[in-house]
Amino acid sequence: MTAERERESDGVGADAVALAAARALLRVDTRAEAAAVLHAAVRELGGRVVPAVVDDPEALAVDVSLGLGEPCVVVPAEQSAGILQRLRRQLPPVVEDAQAAAARCDRYQRQARRARTDALTGLAVRGEIDARLAGATDADVICLMDLDGFKTLNDTRGHAAGDRALRRFGKLLRSHVRDVDFVGRYGGDEFLLIFVGIPLAVAVERMGELVLTWATGDPGMGVSIGVSQVDERGAAIATAAADRALYRAKRAGGGVVQLAKAGDYRPPA
After folding, report:
1. Residue 87: which H helix or E strand, with range?
2. How big, in percent rounded to 5, are the helix, strand and coil portions of the chain?
3. Would the pLDDT of 216 be above 90?
């Protein structure tokens, strides 16, 4: 052990490490960032993070993984009674601070997810839809959907039945998209789906399957869909085109997919 580390064993240097870690933990935004601060403090205190399965009699019996990956513990980086003593004294409060910071980050992220997610359907809210459309590229296909007979359902069977239908449709939509795709509740019983990097014909086919699946699951209630391709004119034009195609699908009696025509690609009215 170096003379400098021996001098630090009086706690002055170790206290500074713990204080710096506490301050850094106030600024973290994720559990992973909290774990990084904790592990850096371990190194500053003269320790080393190792898997909990390592058989070391000097390992401190405290998990410093913060729930990320496999459990891990701390051992002295050098064979030194001073380092071991410092770790035993200083590490527990640092771990406690890191656990509190990680829990705070989890709460914040849950709140952020709730703010971005429609509580009824579990899909993205309108603000998230607008942000996604702002970043759309010509690799995207936009699908606008509207449930057929939704107002009648609400009027005849009540709003609880309408809510159940919206939840079921949201679940169905999530099952028909990949992780790279995007789906949100546009408003009321209208939904928007963005396919990424698939041919337009494939998107139309997938939407046709969705129409059939939905009609089978709830006879008497269909879904109308308008589909458009984003091009150099941008997402706003493509969304307007999908909306006009959706309107044609509704006029045709519903329960169908309509592909946007060349004349549909014009600015919204």
Report:
1. helix 81-116
2. 55, 15, 30
3. no
Q: Long-range contact list for 64-69, CB < 8 A, 24+ apart? A: 64/35, 64/38, 64/39, 64/91, 64/95, 64/98, 65/35, 66/31, 66/34, 66/35, 66/38, 66/98, 66/99, 66/102, 67/31, 67/102, 68/31, 68/32, 68/35
- Domain ranges across the chain: 3-115, 126-264
Counting other chains too, the contacts that 31-35 makes at CB distance below 8 Å and 24 or more residues apart are: 31/66, 31/67, 31/68, 31/102, 31/105, 31/106, 32/68, 33/105, 34/66, 34/98, 34/101, 34/102, 34/105, 35/64, 35/65, 35/66, 35/68, 35/98, 35/102
Pairing assessment for the beta strands 223-229 and 257-259 based on DSSP bridges: parallel
Using DSSP's 3-state secondary structure scheme, residue 163 falls into helix
Least confident of 59-63, 109-113, 116-120, 189-193: 109-113
Distance CA(108)–CA(159), nearest Å, equals 32
Q: What are the helix (H) ranges across 137-234?
A: 150-157, 159-175, 200-217
Q: Which residues of 59-72 are buried (b: 16+ CB within 10 A; e: fewer)?
A: bbebebbbeeeeeb
Measured at the CA of 63, the angle between CA 57 and CA 69, to 5 degrees, comes to: 120
Which helix (H) or strand (E) is 143 found in, with range? strand 140-147
Kindly indicate the confidence band of residue 141, based on its pLDDT and cuts at 50, 70 and 90: very high
The answer to whether the predicted template modeling score (pTM) of the entire model surpasses 0.90 is no
CATH 3.30.365.10 for domain 126-264:
no
